[in-house]
Amino acid sequence: MGIAYMLPGSEGVYGQNYDVYMHPASTQKILTALAAYLYLGTEYRIRTALMLDKNVLNPQGKLNISSDGTLQGNIAVRFSGDPTLTSDKYLKLLDMLKKAGVKRVAGKVILDLSRFGGRSRAQGWSWDDLPVCFTAPAAAAIINRNCVFAQLQPQGQGVIAKAVIPQNSPVSIDSEAVGIPASSYGGDCELEANLYHDNVYRISGCVPIQKDNKPWPLSLSVSDPEKWGLDWTAITLKRLGITYSGLEVSHRPLSGYSDYVYIDSASMKELVRYMLYKSNNLYADAIIKNVAYEYYHDSATYYRAVTAMRSILQKYAGLSLGDSYQVDGSGLSPHNLITPHQLLEVLRYISVNDAKLHLLEVMPVAAKSGTLQWRGSVHQAPLAGNVTAKTGTLTNISNLAGVITTKSGSRVPFVIFTNAISLPPKQRDAVKYHRMANPALGFERYVLEQIYQEKVMGRDF
Asked: What is the maximum span of the chain, computed from C-alpha positions, in angstroms?
């Protein structure tokens, strides 16, 4: 365990193991949020644009459409990693062609994916988590969060459950999961998902038969975001009744094209708010990759993303992350390492400068919002309403970092890293399946109450 905190009127750092490198998990999103605020600002928006090549527009700037509705030339869609882009929004974007009278594109439809490069998942992401939505790939093409929200409908005890896929969703699910009583779910009989190429899933293991035989929800990330973008484009153009000569992707910026219409994301303030409230990994990595693109004016890889993050924090906030190690913006990778002291310095900067930053107002508040609304360690007095912080959870990790308003009304930063949690097997299963609270939360509450009381805790607490 590593703990770092400050007390009112003191510049000292208190706690234990605060210079030991540990896994930040989702508290890493604090770094992403600050870098985005410092470099892009709160009103920055991520744009998805429908583009036309120079042959498509006539000298008057209008679409060059023949009498039968044929558009002469190529069109392109520039994806920019907007995590809020849905299939409905994409339909509205491409519908502008139909409204202009286009029935056929004589040329190609090209997806410009050049804004992001390299892998769409970062180093160290757990392979067995890859089929799950919280590891959705942060690619340039993001539609419906690069995730499928499907269902398994039990057909009876010992009978294979039926997979129910949303209409038009370009995935395939092969179910081999059998129904069992809800009381028997867990341990060596739980649901397992394998993700293959071409966005094909195989679901095996057990699915609990719930009251009234309600379907079991599935949230599955896509394996191939490039194919996902191509498939959704084909589906959308078919719905609009628009044909075309070819469909392909480009990993290099297209020249000779200009924006025709576009869709913008919500503001960066709202993107960061959602990222922090929901601890959404896709938002975090899409945000930090957009930071990197704007910082380098080049294709954003994970390496460039974390390098831009570190450079921005140093240049604009005077924050050195020293020998800490980052590989993503979400904290999803266990390769990430930072000390409680280093993260405390980031939080101290945010707290001191929050009148200008307004970053704390988009972080979860104990017993009120986000991931802290129901967190057992902070939902009662005196912590309820007085802790503003980011959670960080991975297997065997339970972290919390933010600021706390103490009994004197002062606001001080704190970091609590609880890594390498080990529990007896039965207790571990009870925590995993939400049958009991994580025992680490009890100690977390104790530490926070001591900070609230403005106490100096010894190294043996």
From this structure: 82
